[in-house]
Amino acid sequence: SASASSSRKAHVRRPPNCFIVYRMAMREKVLKEIGSQCNNTEVSKVVARWWKNEPEDVREQYREKAKQLSEEHKRRYPDYKYQPRKR
Which first-to-last residue range defines the signal peptide (predicted)? Predict the structure, then answer.
């Protein structure tokens, strides 16, 4: 319905954490390695293994990027408050 789609547009998403930033960066690489037909669950499993094996300095780069994105999110949406929805 029209009201449902307009309320969805107003929804502000949470800023991504360091793993999500890493996953976004690695998504294309995963799809090339294991095939473009795989689903998001498979992509996440592969990326999770890679994340666990990354050296601390690489992980720290993604933590810093996530922190920057979080700060930018706070500037853009100063009144944002995370409110998880019940399923």
Answer: none
Q: How many CB atoms lie within 10 A of CB 83?
A: 5
Phi, psi of 11 (to 5 degrees): -65, 130
Q: How many residues does the chain have?
A: 87
Q: Structure tokens of 11?
A: 């929804």
pLDDT, one tens digit for every residue, the chain (87 residues): 455 555 555 789 999 999 999 999 999 898 888 877 788 898 999 999 999 999 999 999 999 999 999 999 999 999 999 888 888
Angstrom distance (rounded) from CA 12 to CA 82: 9
pTM: 0.79
Integer-rounded Cα Rg, in Å, for the chain is: 16
Amino acid at 48: A
**Residue 4: how many other CB atoms lie within 10 Å:** 7
